[in-house]
Structures are given as C-alpha cells and as structure tokens.
From TrEMBL:
This is SPRY domain-containing protein. Residues 30-55 have a biased composition (Basic and acidic residues). It holds the Pfam family SPRY. Residues 62-78 have a biased composition (Polar residues). It comes from Aphanomyces astaci. Residues 121-223 form the SPRY domain. Residues 1-80 are annotated as: Disordered.
Length: 229
C-alpha cells in the first residue's frame, strides 16, 4: 500500500505473532525482521532483483459516450465461491457459499475469507458494507492467508459512501450497498486493477509477481455481506 508507509489500523494479534494490520497490502512479511509488521517487497528477500511493488493512483481513461466501460467478459469470470475451510471464526455463508456475512461482536477481531480457487478476475456485489471497522477486498496468495488476522496481499479499502466527506485515496474508494467491485490481475503486465460498477476507480498495483492469487476479504466490520458473481 509507494506503498509501505501507509498508516492503517492495528488489530488483534495471535499469541506469538506480530500485530495484525491490513498493512496487508504487502504479500509476505520479511521473516528475518520479526519486529516489522509489513514486508517491504512482494517476494522473499533472497531474490536479489526483487523490486518493491509500486501502487499508483492513475486517472481513469475517458470513455466515448457511446462506448461501454472496459470490463472483463463473462467468459473471463470463473465460477467462484467462498471457501468454508479458509475463513475466520465469525463468517457465515449462504447462497451455496457464494455469499459471505460477518457477525463480529468484538471490533478487535479481524476476520478473513478466501475464495475457493485462484482467479485472474473476479466480481463481488457489496450487499452490505457493514457497520464500523474496516473492510478490504482484493487478492492474496494462498500461503499468505490467515483466517483471523494478518492476511497480506493487494487490497482496496471499501469506504462507506454514506459517511461525510468520503473521497478515497490511492488505496481506498467509497462504495454503497449494491455496488459491484471487479478486481483483475493482469499477469502479463504484472498489474492489479479495481473497478466499481464497470468503471475504473484509479487504483492500480504495479510490479505484481506472476503467481496465482485468490480473491480475499479482510475485515473487522459487523454485518458485512458480499456475494461472488
């Protein structure tokens, strides 16, 4: 999230682990620096030529009035569901596990949920953006997933559009109930892009390694409900 300097809210930590934060817009932490919560590069430190992932806010391209926004075709979308074996303690499922919902009594309890398989693009409908806390949606590597905490990856923070003066920034954007978020991993050019209702929202991660990535949600919000489309 340039990327390693963003201040994000801290969360509860498991015994013996570093504090949980979705500073989690880094894929992996540096195992040789236990005091650091956030890894500084996308891959393990022993890769000599590894570059720090860059993320930038870019201006959405103008679209002719008679043209449709650039969105993945239906043939690009895989049949996905949420994975009941890779989820936090306060997540429940419905609609044949296509819909997830959080039920969190303790705001310090982070919950994550992973999709059933890796995908180059996915869409989720934000049925309910939840109450309080934070909500992040994006990609992570399967071995970076932690059900109740420090899942790391490439995320967009979902801001509640109903709040006053909500505009978003390089890693966040306002959403309302019913909005559809599309996330695409362009493996050929090493980027991850985000769209709302088919429109570019200007969030892009660059220099993303060419590895399978799984749709993921990280939140400590109550009553978040989200459906994979």
């Amino acid at each position: 999230m340039a990327h390693s300097t963003l201040d994000l809210p801290s969360a509860a930590s498991a015994e013996g682990e570093a504090p949980v934060t979705p500073h989690n817009n880094q894929d992996e932490c540096d195992s040789t620096k236990e005091a650091e919560v956030v890894g500084k590069i996308d891959e393990a430190d022993d890769v000599a030529d590894a570059r720090e992932p860059e993320q930038k806010k870019h201006k959405p391209l103008s679209t002719p009035t008679n043209a449709q926004p650039s969105s993945p075709s239906t043939t690009d979308l895989q049949a996905l569901s949420w994975d009941g074996d890779h989820c936090g303690d306060h997540v429940r499922f419905s609609n044949k596990t296509n819909t997830m919902e959080t039920c969190i009594l303790d705001p310090e309890q982070w919950n994550c949920v992973l999709a059933s398989q890796a995908a180059s693009t996915f869409r989720v409908r934000l049925d309910n953006v939840g109450r309080g806390g934070d909500l992040w949606v994006g990609y992570c590597k399967k071995d970076s997933f932690v059900p109740n905490g420090s899942t790391r990856g490439r995320f967009c923070q979902i801001l509640r559009a109903s709040a006053a003066n909500v505009t978003g920034d390089e890693t966040s954007h306002p959403f309302e109930d019913g909005d559809v978020l599309t996330v695409t991993h362009h493996r050929a050019n090493h980027t991850i892009l985000f769209q709302k209702n088919g429109q570019d929202i200007g969030i892009e991660y660059e220099h993303v390694t060419d590895e399978p990535r799984y749709p993921a949600v990280v939140t400590n919000s109550d009553r978040v409900s989200m459906t994979l489309l």
